[in-house]
Each structure stands twice: as C-alpha cells, then as structure tokens.
Amino acid sequence: MDNTFKGQVALVTGGTKGIGKAIADTLSSKGAIVVVTARTAPKENTERQHFIAADLSQPESAEAIAKEILEKYGRIDIIVNNAGANLGPGGGFSTLSDEHWYNDWALNFMSVVRINKALVPTMIAQQYGVIINISTGAAKQPIWEMTMSYSSAKAALNIYSKALASELGPKGIRVNVVSPGVVKTPLMLEFIENIAKTSNSTIDDAFQGIMDKVGVPLGRMAAPQEIAELVTFLASPEAKYITGSNYAVDGGASPTV
C-alpha cells in the first residue's frame, strides 16, 4: 500500500462524483483520511471516506464543515476545493440576471474563500498545509455563449489563489490551482445534453461544437483520473517547492504557454 499521505486529513469538496470522486479515491488509496462533501450522499458505500452533507453556496456551510472535521480529527492537512459548476444559462450577457451572477459567484468563488477562512487557521497552527483550488481553462479562455458568469468567478479564484499563496507561503502552507479543460464527468455530459436540447441538435453534434470552440489538440475529453493524478502530486512531498502556480490540464487547448 502507498502511504504517502498516511495520518494526513484531506477535505475534498464536491467529492462524491466526477473529478472530486477521482481525487478523493486517489488520496484514500495513498493513505489519507478523506472527508468529502456534497449536497446529497453518494449511492455507493463510502466507508473509506467521511461524508458531510453540505450546500457550499450557503454561507454557514463552511463553518459547519470545519467544526465537524476539527472535532473528529483535530487537524487538516490538505484542502481540495473542487465543488463548482457552470450554473448560468447560455446566451451571453443579456440572458444573465443578477441572481445568475450571484449563484455562480457563491458556489465557484465565495465557497472557496469561506472554506479556506474556516480551516487555514488550523494549518497555520500546524505550520503545514496544502490547498489546491480547482479552476477551469475557461477562466482564461471564456466562451461568451456558455460560461460568462462562471468564467468570471473562476478568474477571481485564480487571482485569489495567487494572493493566498503569497500570504501563506511563509507559514508553511502551499496553494496551487489546477485548471481542467473538457473533462468527461456526469456534469459535463448533462451540460452537453442540455445544449443538444436547446439547439435542436444531436448529442454528438453538441459535443463536437464544444470541442470546436475550445479547440483540443488531443481531440478528446480528459478522464477525471487524469486530473486527480496531478492534484495528488501537488499535494505530495514531491511538490514541496511548488506554490502559487496554475496548472492547465486541457489537452493542449490553451492558446499560450
């Protein structure tokens, strides 16, 4: 058994499916005690992981999660802020109400700020911790028809992460960002299906339309495990001199280095 993270406590928000589940399972396989959050409990058995039901768009959730983790385990070593979703409708600026903007920012930005604020003091007391914020390639390359409010929230997350890395580095805490491109998750498949319905096209055509807009040289979606492997590396001792960085895992979609 790989005991890279033996004795360490890790939190993975949105950790019951897709990218979050792959990250949580990989950290578990390497010896970590893993806490996962989601709005509803997973259907499969989660004996290997401690589940906390939480809606991270609600301000009170972060304190409740932190309280349960610290009362049960007394420490927190790794935070993976993975929970997020593109909640706004497509169609550009004119289709987005104030509520759409608030919803995207509450889940994709403020939830991360609150989780970190609740748990970072414990990391500071330990003089050790790793924070990995999951962003998106769309934060740098937004698709106006699909991701305007979501992209803006994630762009703010990128800047916040850099500032946090600068503040916390002297205290022994590393902060990095992982920015996936198009990943084959249940949420992405649902997103493609919705595009197909609203555009009166097939799922294959809707998928190809996204790939054409994003432009993926490798020509396919990533598997969640491919994101999890990088996150796990960044959380490990092998990455102990890496902080304040943003890693694209997008099949070459980013137009610049």
Automatic annotation (TrEMBL):
Protein name: SDR family oxidoreductase
Alphabetical keyword list: Oxidoreductase
Pfam families referenced in this protein's UniProt entry, alphabetically: adh_short_C2
InterPro entries: NAD(P)-bd_dom_sf, SDR_fam
Domain of life: Bacteria
UniProt family annotation: Belongs to the short-chain dehydrogenases/reductases (SDR) family.
